[in-house]
Amino acid sequence: MKINIWTGHKVRLRAILPTDWDKFHNNDYDSDSARLCDVIHFPRSEDGTKAWAEHQASKGPNGDENMLAIETLDGVLVGSISTSKCDTRNGTFTYGVAIFREYWRKGYASEAIMILLRYYFEELRYQKVTAHVYAFNDNSLALHERLGFVQEGRLRNMIFTRGQYFDEYLYGLTKSEYEKLKS
Questions:
Q1: Which of 13, 113, 118, 137 could in theory staple to 68 by disulfide, Cβ–Cβ 3.0 to 4.6 A?
Q2: Contact present, 43 and 31 (Cβ < 8 Å)
Q3: 11-182 has which fold?
Q4: Residues 46, 98, 124, 129: what is their CA dihedral angle, to the nearest 10 degrees?
Q5: pTM score of the predicted model
Q6: Where are the beta strands (DSSP E) in 110-161?
Q7: Residues in domain N-acetyltransferase (predicted)?
Q8: pLDDT in tens, 54-109
């Protein structure tokens, strides 16, 4: 039986395809979801989103930094996960995950995170991951704590949205903590 490291029990991680544009475009209209994951961007045309998806599909990773689609085992695109600030010298990286609203609370984010961590910790020799979580994103705070991440810091008044400033929390997980989660 073949095992694919990018596949879990519910989702698989894969490259973004040009045909994914419409799901990402529709998600752009969910301002609350955008606010939880990043920021609310200016509106983008369908052609602009198509160009973005084509660019993502053709560019591939930048070193160990990459953006991947999250899809169910049935092939339904449910979100994305990306890595950044990949520091091979110190073995640290950050990531962000975004699940389209209609797929929230189905375990897709947690499984996608664990698939990503498996690859970065077990294949690329990273030893620590950091996640930045906005103080108003209760679901993400609970997710990271449930996954065993440790709150390592709070950056005060870092995020401006809805006319006010919010804190940003830093969550970390080391490879040894990850190993304990697996057992």
A1: 13
A2: no
A3: Aminopeptidase (3.40.630)
A4: 140
A5: 0.95
A6: 128-134, 150-161
A7: 11-176
A8: 999 999 889 999 999 999 999 999 999 999 999 999 999 999 999 999 999 999 99
